Amino acid sequence: MGRILFTEWMAVCWNPSTDQLNVPVMFNELLYLSAGWPAGCANNISMFITAYVTLERYLCTVLPLKIKKIITPRRTVAVIVSIYVVCVAYVVPEYAYVYYDWNFYPALNRTMLGLAFRSEFLDLKGLSFLIHAILVVSGLFSVSLFSVLLVTQLKRQTSWRKRHTRSENHAEALTLRDRKSSVLIAVLALFMALVDVPMSLKFEKKLG
């Protein structure tokens, strides 16, 4: 939900019609801290939680008798909390380096609210972008890898059930269920790749 709201606000700030409101605000700079980084943070959180859920489902198919000992509620909470902490912490340097202030823009001959930079945090410049790029690549790789492993395992199970199930109707029902699960996970991974990569590249090109 938060990711959707931040993305919608980013679209509003990027809309050329917003600049015609005659408001003393540089919206293309306003979105940097109010939409860009929060959206990126929420995106990474969603991506790593998806990767964890996919890994959990894969382990359920590979180790069905041991999964309850491996994936416990306490460990799940610890993993999710860790994901939130890491994804929020990496944007802290950017908020320490960048802030909002009134600036004079010669091209517009106006003083408007925009971005300003603290010289004492100059060494932090680009650090958040680097960590963000690493997290995006590793997150997409994790989702893709676990999805491929899960789909492969489901196909193996389907073949095994076909060979060892006497009732053809029952075997066909199991196969259809596994196929639906495989397609759902594959589509989810593909959707995340198609959406996240272009948005990340556009965000870095606009604001980097």
Automatic annotation (TrEMBL):
Residues 46-208 form the G-protein coupled receptors family 1 profile domain. The gene is LOC106068588. InterPro entries: GPCR_Rhodpsn, GPCR_Rhodpsn_7TM. It comes from the Eukaryota. PROSITE patterns: G_PROTEIN_RECEP_F1_2 (PS50262). Keywords: Membrane, Transmembrane, Transmembrane helix. One of its GO terms (molecular function) is G protein-coupled receptor activity. It comes from Biomphalaria glabrata (Bloodfluke planorb). Signal peptide: none annotated. This is Uncharacterized protein LOC106068588. One of its GO terms (cellular component) is membrane. It is found in: Membrane. The chain crosses the membrane at residues 30-55, 76-100, 129-152, 183-201.
